[in-house]
Amino acid sequence: MNVLLASTSTLFGGNYLEYLKPEISSLFAGISEIIFIPFARPGGISHEEYTAKAADFFKILNIEVKGLHEFDDQISALNNAKGFFTGGGNTFLLVKMLHEKGLMQVLKQNIESGKPYLGTSAGSNIAGLNMKTTNDMPIVYPPSFECMGLVNFNLNPHYLDPNPELKHNGETRETRIKEFLTQNDTKVVGLREGNWIRKIGEKTTVEGGEKTRIFEKGKEPYEIEPGTAL
Amino acid sequence: MNVLLASTSTLFGGNYLEYLKPEISSLFAGISEIIFIPFARPGGISHEEYTAKAADFFKILNIEVKGLHEFDDQISALNNAKGFFTGGGNTFLLVKMLHEKGLMQVLKQNIESGKPYLGTSAGSNIAGLNMKTTNDMPIVYPPSFECMGLVNFNLNPHYLDPNPELKHNGETRETRIKEFLTQNDTKVVGLREGNWIRKIGEKTTVEGGEKTRIFEKGKEPYEIEPGTAL
């Protein structure tokens, strides 16, 4: 497999995908066209606008971007594609669309056959075993929470450390993930912004400038350094 | 109806339910025993521990608390009860339990018949039309997101204003609720901590010390004062 799963598309103060440019360039080396999956629609942006945003970045790399929504036969579109990028937004909306259109398994098979895959945020969540550790609001009801399982754990993108100064009783991210572990025995990778997961062949590592926080049932959460195998 | 839906059980630096004591006392006036629904299990606390925590508070009001989990026939337990309290925690877990045990409609009918109901956080969410505006993590898959619809809108408990100093690209609460409105035409009440909704008979008002933020499809979000009818 050849997979890059980023916590976020955009660093604070930066431009869209800018910080990932060398990694993305290497991921899609030799490929001149990819399919963009715009279904997560951040802030309700249209499929067309979202695809144009992605295309605008990939122009710098001389890679053409086609939005999956443009195809009448989306299963064939995935099967004929050379590579994929799924953008962030709402994971419930993304997973609902992929399941209802019968695309989740097709996308998985194509990636497992070796086609490169880039995910950011919600697009990274769907590479996990299921979407039960998303931060998103359940604005629609998907027929299932199961995802592609390209890696044998779940992701929590945009992982955020507790803010001790916040006078607010909503749960911290850590509390939420610990609640998940009372109901599930699945490893969760808390991916801070600026970090990403890279899977090449059978080897999966965590990359980027920050440590990564790992949550497992029955263990205290722990931190791993960039470059560590997962 | 006689319903109190609080954003949070506990104010920052305060004790459990302390700030709501006069309101709770008036809600359950003349009642000596209520049923506590502990299924949301905040932080994975057991049903027994959670019920003990609720009972500890209600002792001050001379109200006895029985946990719903203690009954073999939970439908009869709801039908025979004098009043109800559903505590906060994980809304997905709470809604899954209520649907799977066939209790959601039974609880609704009992409350609609006039029995007093107190909800905090997740327990307030289930009084809305559906749980699609919860902040919680989807740690389990409920058979449906539909809730009791005791009020004709959705709630967002622990409503939190955007923090302009946060250098993080996760969505704000407002962004999330606006995404909800791209997919749904349901009013959302953003209930800040310290505020609650009170429904007596057919009249529903928002109460507490803070303004309340209202989100409707096709409108800019707006603020209403304590005491305003919803």
TrEMBL record, chains A, B:
| Alphabetized InterPro entries for the sequence | Class_I_gatase-like, Peptidase_S51
Top-rank lineage group of the source organism: Bacteria
SUPFAM superfamilies per UniProt: Class I glutamine amidotransferase-like
- Any one Pfam family match given in the protein's UniProt record, by short name: Peptidase_S51
Keywords of the record:
Hydrolase, Protease, Serine protease
Similarity remark:
Belongs to the peptidase S51 family.
What's the protein called, per UniProt? (Alpha)-aspartyl dipeptidase
Q: What is the native source organism of this protein?
A: Kaistella solincola
Q: What is the lineage of its organism?
A: Bacteria, Pseudomonadati, Bacteroidota, Flavobacteriia, Flavobacteriales
